[in-house]
Design a protein that fits this description.
alpha+beta, five-stranded parallel beta sheet, 36% helix, single chain
Length: 620
């Protein structure tokens, strides 16, 4: 086998898939190293893609030319737009996927990519010379050479699995960990830590009394994640139930055998997706917690008990489950477990995902302290694309936090680092009204096309879509509806009547008015109006632009100020310790993170506004 590659990707989870795919598409001879090619993209935890803010990441990835959205559409079982009743900024798509189908789709896609070589092996050492990557060594003592290595090892770095007092080594259940790489990288000066995550038990679908649960149906007309998918359909329903005080009392019986409370686990767990025992302990005033029963596939009996992530002893797990309505006779297929693993503090990264300490070494996914398939996937894409661009001698690909949730995520990781598993939320994006899931293509397709990852046909479609939106807004300003028709409609939506004929744009700004309904009231239908009436999605985009015009204008102004500071660059050789007027904490943080601009420096926790003023004067 040829042992020389342009890019080597270690680990074939969601980060590894995106990294290897984009690298290969950029013409790089790419190797994807995995212990088992049939577990590529295997959903270790919940078999779902998307969710609050996570759905934004998937849509952005698709707009750039990534593959997660396409795979999710093909393997999707249950599609739903979350937060539909709330504002457009926080609506997010989510899909329950078939856990067995998704890896098959991923393997088939990657196997057919030119330039990509899938190698079933384990990396035991990354070879570094003069602070530059030169290759790696496998467990079979084979050397693979490369100038760029992307490490996306997930939870496999010194992974330990816990169920009660039982502890075994593993990257996930049934698979061995990677035990040497993180210690070797630590010896090169890369600071590592320890994190924890967990997964709920799985139960047999036929052991559930569905009459005692509520149906959680998907959307009536679900929309796909990917522009490459025409339609998707809901093939299953999920079911809801909840814990109660008896459940909590039962689970407390096992606290003295819980690795979380006995001190066996040192790693910090996810704050926003805690285990059931952690929820009971931290929120003791709560009488119940929601449980969602999610089938894991069409050809499996396994049901995922969402909301019941746990590392309690198996006997306590099953006893607690049987106290929940509908689960009185449930059969446990696999107990829940916690996994503790090594990660590297992400302040040690550049925005390209390349490590600052070792040239050509990129980190992507949970190794950077993130949680979630979607967070991992976008990091893999950014790492893979930047590795290829650097080898080609081209400028790096860096998304600003004003452009995309991907930019928010990476900016947060580098500037704030993390002491706990990082999860993306809409609340983390200060420009979230502009960074909606429904306009990801309008924001980002230009990059996907620029890098040759999207077809010209699709890019032309996106440009035409933008032109229709711009023209549509003008159309609403230049067209009025007869007053009798307006008032008749306004009465139906409980809005006060108007005294004069009013343009559609002004009417749309009323809280209960719907643009599509207003367009239908026009007397004559020209060619452009027919285009609008045949595309409700575009009408919805125009409606959002009109209803939130003032907020959008304000955010655009804020972005101008934001970009002004982003373009005030800091010299690379600056010695922060010599600037004694800076606070001690600022000197330490700035020296550690080495920001490239005043804007980045201002987002580092511990660096105050006065520190930024002092730094700005010093640079001048």
């Amino acid at each position: 086998m040829d042992n020389k590659f342009d890019v080597i990707v270690i680990g074939a989870g969601h980060a590894g898939i995106e990294a290897s795919a984009v690298s290969a598409k950029k013409g790089m001879k790419t190797a994807l190293l995995t212990m088992n090619k049939h577990t590529i993209g295997k959903p270790s935890c919940n078999p779902s893609i998307g969710g609050t803010a996570k759905g934004h990441l998937v849509k952005e990835l698709d707009a750039l030319g990534g593959v997660m959205g396409l795979f999710a559409d093909k393997a999707g079982l249950h599609f739903k737009l979350l937060n539909r009743s709330k504002g457009p900024a926080i609506r997010s798509p989510r899909a329950q996927i078939d856990k067995d189908t998704y890896p098959i789709i991923a393997l088939d896609y990657l196997s057919n990519l030119t330039n990509l070589h899938i190698i079933e092996s384990t990396a035991i050492e990354i070879l570094i010379k003069n602070d530059k990557v030169i290759g790696l060594k496998t467990n079979e003592n084979e050397i693979l050479y490369s100038n760029a290595i992307i490490l996306s090892a997930g939870t496999f770095l010194n992974g330990m699995l816990y169920t009660g007092l039982s502890c075994t080594k593993g990257g996930r259940v049934g698979e061995p960990p990677s035990e040497k790489i993180s210690d070797l990288l630590n010896s090169y000066g890369l600071e590592k830590g320890r994190l924890k995550t967990g997964t709920p038990p799985r139960i047999h679908k036929d052991s559930i009394d569905y009459s005692k649960t509520r149906i959680e149906a998907g959307d009536e007309y679900p929309e796909p994640f990917s522009h490459l998918t025409n339609t998707v359909e809901n093939k299953i329903v999920c079911y809801g139930t909840e814990t109660h005080l008896q459940t909590h009392d039962i689970l407390r019986e096992g606290f003295d055998r819980s690795p979380l409370f006995t001190g066996a686990i040192f790693g910090t767990g996810p704050r926003y997706c805690p285990s059931i025992e952690d929820k009971i302990n931290r929120f003791s005033e709560r009488n119940s917690h929601k449980i969602l029963l999610e089938p894991e596939g069409l050809n499996t009996n396994s049901v995922y008990v969402n909301g019941y992530s746990t590392s309690l002893p198996e006997d306590i797990q099953i006893k607690g489950l049987k106290s929940i309505s509908g689960l009185e006779n449930c059969e446990l297929l696999r107990p829940g477990y916690a996994i503790e693993y090594d990660f590297f503090f992400p302040y040690q990264l550049n925005f390209t995902m390349e490590t600052k300490a070792v040239e050509g070494l990129y980190f992507a996914g949970q190794i950077n302290g993130t949680s979630g398939y979607e967070e991992a996937a976008v990091q893999g894409f950014v790492a893979g694309l930047n590795a290829a661009l650097k080898l080609k001698g081209e400028d790096p690909f860096i998304l600003s936090r004003s452009e995309a949730y991907i930019g928010v995520l990476i900016d947060d990781l580098v500037n704030k680092s993390t002491e706990e598993p990082y999860r993306i939320f809409t609340s983390l994006a200060e420009y979230r009204l502009l960074l909606r899931h429904d306009n990801a293509d309008l924001r980002l397709a230009k990059y996907g096309y620029k890098y040759g990852l999207l077809s010209k046909e699709y890019y032309d479609y996106v440009q035409n879509k933008q032109n229709i939106i711009t023209t549509g807004i003008l159309f609403t300003k230049n067209n009025k509806i007869k007053i009798d028709k307006i008032n008749k409609y306004l009465e139906t939506v409980n809005e006060s009547p108007v005294l004069n004929s009013t343009d559609i744009n002004t009417l749309t700004k009323r809280s209960e008015a719907k643009l599509y309904d207003l367009l239908c009231l026009l007397d004559s239908v020209d060619d452009f109006l027919e285009i609008l009436l045949n595309d409700k999605n575009i009408v919805q985009l125009i409606q959002t632009e009109i209803k939130y015009e003032g907020y959008i204008a304000r955010q655009n102004k804020e972005i101008e100020q934001f970009l002004n500071n982003e373009h005030k660059f800091i010299p690379k050789n600056i010695d922060y310790h010599s600037i004694t007027s800076l606070s001690k904490e600022a000197r330490e943080k700035l020296s550690k993170i080495k920001p490239i601009s005043l804007g980045q420096a201002s987002r580092i926790s511990g660096v105050s506004a006065s520190d930024i003023s002092i730094l700005s004067l010093y640079i001048k």
